[in-house]
Design brief:
- The structure is a single chain.
- By secondary structure, the chain is an alpha/beta fold.
- It contains eleven helices and 13 strands.
- Strands 3, 4, 5, 6, 11, 12 and 13 form a seven-stranded mixed beta sheet that branches. Strands 1-2 form a two-stranded antiparallel sheet. A two-stranded parallel sheet has the order 7-10.
- Strand 1 and strand 2 form a beta hairpin.
- Helix 1 packs across helix 2, helix 1 packs across helix 3 and helix 1 crosses helix 4.
- The longest helix has 27 residues.
- The protein starts with a helix and ends with a helix.
- Pfam families: HTH_1, LysR_substrate.
- This is LysR family transcriptional regulator.
Length: 328
C-alpha cells in the first residue's frame, strides 16, 4: 500500500503544483509527502520533479509516469469508493447456497420477504446437495441441513431436524398403522435415495438411549424430499420425513405421526458465513434477517408434548370386519 500512497501523492502534487498542497489533500504531513515521493524516485531510479523553493514541475520521466498512472489511479479510487459504499448500502449482488430439500418448505418464503423488503439486493440462489465452500464458490452465505459445517466458516444453528414416521389418514384407514418398528415390514413404505451418493437412506430410530438404523424396503423411491412428502400425503405409503416437511401437515391433520417414541433428532439446519467484519452490509442484513425469522421457529418442528400426545391410530373397524369376513 506504500507504493500506492506514494503514487497518489505524486499525482496530487503534479496536479496541484505543490507537495505541501498534496500533503494537506491526502491528510499527511509535508515531510511525509516529500519522503514518499523521494522514495518513489529512488525505487524508479529517475527524478520525477524539478524542485525550486517556489516551483514544482515535472521532469520528462515524471510527465510520462503521470500520463500513465493517472487513469489507472482514477479507476482504483473509484473501485475503492464502490467497495466502501457496499458496506453502507443494502444493495448489490448477494450469492446464497442451500440444499434443495430446504428450498420450498423452509427458505423460499423468507427469501421472498427479504426481496420485498430490500429490492435493491440481487439475490442469486444456488440450490444443490453438496456442501458449498463459500470461498471456492464465491458465495456470501450458505445453509446446511445435518451436521455443522466445517472449514473455517462461522455457523449458527437455526432449527432441529426431527425424523418422523408419518402416514396419511387415508392410508391408515385402508391399511391400519404399525405399532412397532417390526410391523413396518407389513406396510408399503417410501424411500429416499441420496442425490450425492445414490444410496438408499436407512431409517434411524431411537430405542432407549441409542439410535439404530434399519433398512426399510421401499414400495416407491424418490431422490427429492418434497416428492417423498407428496407420496406420503397421497396415501402411497408410510414415510420417515424431516420435521421441516412434516410439521405443518401433522398439525393440519393431513399427516398422522407414528411410532413417536422412536423419533430421532437428526442434525439441524445451519446458516454459515465468513467473518462478519469482512462482509458487506447486504450480507450482514440478510444473515440477521434470516436468523430473526428462522431461529427456533416452531413452525418447523414438533414440541415434546406434541410427540408424547400422539397415539397410534386404530385400524378402522369397518375395514377390519370386511377383512375378517373376506378371510372367512
Amino acid at each position: 500500500m506504500s507504493e500506492i500512497r506514494a503514487i497518489t501523492l505524486f499525482v496530487r502534487a503534479a496536479t496541484l503544483g505543490s507537495l505541501r498542497r498534496a500533503a494537506v489533500d491526502q491528510g499527511v504531513s509535508p515531510q511525509a509527502a516529500s519522503h514518499a515521493v523521494m522514495q518513489l524516485e529512488k525505487e524508479l531510479g529517475v527524478r520525477l520533479f524539478h524542485r525550486t523553493t517556489r516551483k514544482l514541475s515535472l521532469t520528462e520521466e515524471g510527465l510520462r509516469l503521470f500520463d500513465s498512472v493517472k487513469p489507472a489511479l482514477a479507476i482504483l479510487s473509484s473501485a475503492l469508493a464502490e467497495a466502501r459504499r457496499s458496506k453502507e448500502d443494502v444493495g448489490g449482488l448477494l450469492r446464497v447456497s442451500a440444499p434443495r430439500a430446504l428450498g420450498l418448505p423452509v427458505l423460499w418464503p423468507f427469501f421472498e420477504q427479504f426481496q420485498q423488503r430490500y429490492p435493491n439486493v440481487q439475490l442469486e440462489v444456488q440450490f444443490n446437495d453438496q456442501f458449498t465452500d463459500l470461498v471456492t464458490e464465491r458465495a456470501d452465505v450458505g445453509f446446511r441441513a445435518g451436521p455443522p459445517p466445517s472449514g473455517g466458516s462461522i455457523a449458527r444453528r437455526l432449527l432441529p431436524i426431527q425424523l418422523i414416521v408419518c402416514a396419511s389418514p387415508e392410508y391408515i384407514e385402508r391399511n391400519g398403522a404399525p405399532r412397532t418398528i417390526e410391523e413396518l415390514a407389513q406396510h408399503r413404505c417410501t424411500g429416499f435415495r441420496r442425490a450425492n451418493t445414490g444410496k438408499l437412506a436407512q431409517w434411524p430410530f431411537r430405542i432407549g438411549d441409542e439410535i439404530f438404523y434399519r433398512d426399510v424396503p421401499p414400495a416407491i423411491c424418490v431422490n427429492d424430499t418434497d416428492m417423498e412428502t407428496q407420496a406420503v400425503l397421497s396415501g402411497l405409503g408410510i414415510g420417515q420425513l424431516g420435521s421441516f416437511n412434516a410439521t405443518a401437515h401433522i398439525r393440519s391433520g393431513r399427516l398422522v405421526p407414528l411410532l413417536t417414541q422412536h423419533v430421532v433428532e437428526h442434525g439441524a439446519i445451519y446458516i454459515y458465513y465468513g467473518h462478519r467484519t469482512e462482509q458487506s452490509l447486504r450480507a450482514r442484513t440478510f444473515i440477521d434477517f434470516m436468523i430473526e425469522r428462522m431461529a427456533d421457529n416452531r413452525n418447523f418442528f414438533l414440541e415434546p408434548p406434541e410427540l408424547r400426545a400422539a397415539r397410534p391410530p386404530q385400524r378402522n373397524r369397518a375395514v377390519s370386519s370386511r377383512r375378517k369376513s373376506g378371510a372367512a
